[in-house]
Amino acid sequence: MATVKIPPVLRPKTGGQPEVEAGGGNVGEVLRSLTSEHPDTQEQLFGEDGELNRYVNVYLNDEDVRVLDGLETAVKDGDTVVILPAMAGGASTL
Amino acid sequence: MAIDTERVQTIEEIEPFEAAEEINGGDVVLIDTREPHEYQEAHLENGKLVPPGLIADEIATAAPDKSARTILYCRSGNRSALAAAQLQQLGYENVASMSGGIIAWQEQGLPVVAAHGMTPEQRERYSRHTLLPEVGVDGQVKLLNSKVLLLGAGGLGAPTALYLAAAGVGTIGLVDDDVVDASNLQRQVIHNTERIGMPKTTSARIFIEGLNPDVNVVEHNGRLDATNILDVIEDYDIIVDGADNFPTRYLLNDASVRLRKPVVSASILGFDGQISTFLPYEGPCYRCLYPTPPPAELAPSCSANGVLGVMAGTMGTLQANEVIKLVLGKGEPLVGRLLLYEALGTRFTELKVRRDPNCPICGENAEEIPESEMGKFPDYDEFCAGAGGDR
Fold it and tell me: Environment class of residue A77 by beta-carbon count within 10 Å: exposed (0-12), middle (13-18) or buried (19+)?
């Protein structure tokens, strides 16, 4: 099992959990087990073509999966998958 | 310690101009053999202080390589000659003493790092900085001469401004078009109850001037857009991005890459924060990290979703820390690294950020921007499709 870190904007879709455990041999499988457990995350993570949305960064441990093997990147037990969309919060208006 | 007078006669003495040529050529270890209070007044750039009584204890740290060219100086040339002899006895092979010392050096019009920018009050005020070897008088003078622009005098900008002002950053520019509201005061610690309704840039100025009269505050009471951003950021050494919306973040990124300005960028939401430092062409830029903005439902603002006040403090002071390191040229800035902070679990996570060779702004094939196109930027509101912020 891998630990998937859920960003704050997706936590409403995972029952508020900041981390969930998910199984799978590669990053794609881990994310798909997340989306089958929490279906509302599907459209946030994946486009209609089944690829990761470009505005969502996914890291295996500390490395962007795009510089690894993308969704095919192998995942070991105890690895951490970080889902990271951009955040813009700061000054109240600019 | 007994000095072998025979050896004193044999040390190499060089004139200040010869020393200057060698120092400019590089690969010279420069040792200042005076007392700390003399060093504080004025010293040669990159001169390392090793007081006469501490040579045996400290020289190995200041000059670890005994075969390296090592030039010593003092006030007038006597203490450095004795120290040079002592170094030779300790096995240093290539030592010279600068004759006439720093007095002769300055008489020849050669530059020193002086506390000249620093008044007695400043020496007192910044003494806890100048005691740090990583800062010292040189570093404090750099801070006093530095110019930092803060985008936003709000949640992130307030704590950043507070610590940069206290640190003696000489010029702090503030961009904000908002006025102080009661709902800001839970986190925007430079504003206060009496100043509700006042422009944030003015409230920030009052706070900063009260904290530190050394700081020149420049108010930019307005918004940054494609027509003014280059003019505004051009005058600054470092930009601190605490904007709340994606159009401004992308605009700032594109403009700062063009002008090669470092950007310290943080964002906060709820109990979560992230921070990175973007050094154009040396590390990734904001677009390498986030090539496209998320849709609006994935980019809520603090006003809609709330933010723990102290989160702004944590991330804002991390931004101030990055700025100070960049000014000093010390430590490891967060270049190519994104630091995530989760306040509820009190956990930091560090992720690698790579330069994207295909980045349209800083990648290998990014086009040179001709002068006539410099102020032109895409329509970010369109590009960002309403994502984020209150716009």
Answer: exposed
* Chain B residues 150-189 with a CB less than 8 Å from chain A: 151-157, 175-178, 181, 184
Two structure tokens written together for A36: 């089958």
E strand segments, chain B: 12-14, 28-32, 42-43, 48-49, 69-73, 95-98, 113-114, 147-151, 171-175, 216-220, 238-241, 263-269, 272-278, 337-342, 347-352
Question: For the CA atoms of chain A, what is the radius of gyration?
Answer: 13
Q: Does A16 touch chain B (CB under 8 A)?
A: no
Strand order in the sheet with A56-60: A19-22, A2-5, A80-85, A56-60, A63-64
Q: Look up residue B161 and give its amino acid.
A: A
ipTM: 0.90
Positions of B marked active-site: 302
Token pair belonging to B352? 């690698």
Q: Which of B325, B224, B219, B310 has the alpha carbon at shortest distance from B272?
A: B310
User: Which chain A residues contact residue B176 at CB under 8 A?
Assistant: 91, 93-94
Asked if A8's CB is within 8 angstroms of B290's CB, the reply is no
Give the pLDDT of chain B (391 residues) as one tens digit per residue. 555 555 455 899 999 999 999 999 888 999 999 998 888 778 998 899 999 999 999 999 999 999 999 999 999 999 999 999 999 999 999 999 999 999 999 898 888 877 666 888 898 999 999 999 999 888 999 999 999 999 999 999 999 999 999 999 999 999 999 999 999 999 999 999 999 999 999 999 999 999 999 999 999 999 998 889 999 999 999 999 988 788 889 999 999 999 999 999 999 988 999 999 999 999 999 999 998 887 776 666 666 678 899 999 999 999 999 999 999 999 999 999 999 999 999 999 999 999 999 998 998 777 776 666 655 677 777 766 655 443 3
User: Cα separation of A88 and B244, whole Å?
Assistant: 5
Distance between CA atoms of A71 and A47, rounded to whole angstroms?
A: 13
Backbone region of residue B266 per phi and psi (left: phi > 0; alpha: psi in -120 to 50; beta: other values): beta
- Pairwise CB contact (< 8 Å): A18 & B156: no
Residues 6+ apart with CB under 8 A from B345: A18
Give how far A9 is from chain B: nearest CA, Å: 6
Distance (Å, rounded) from C-alpha B306 to C-alpha B218?
30
Q: Spell out a b/e string for A40-73, using b for 16 or more CB atoms within 10 Å of the CB, else e.
A: ebeebbbeeeeebbebbbbbbbeebbbebeebeb
Secondary structure E strands in B21-158: 28-32, 42-43, 48-49, 69-73, 95-98, 113-114, 147-151
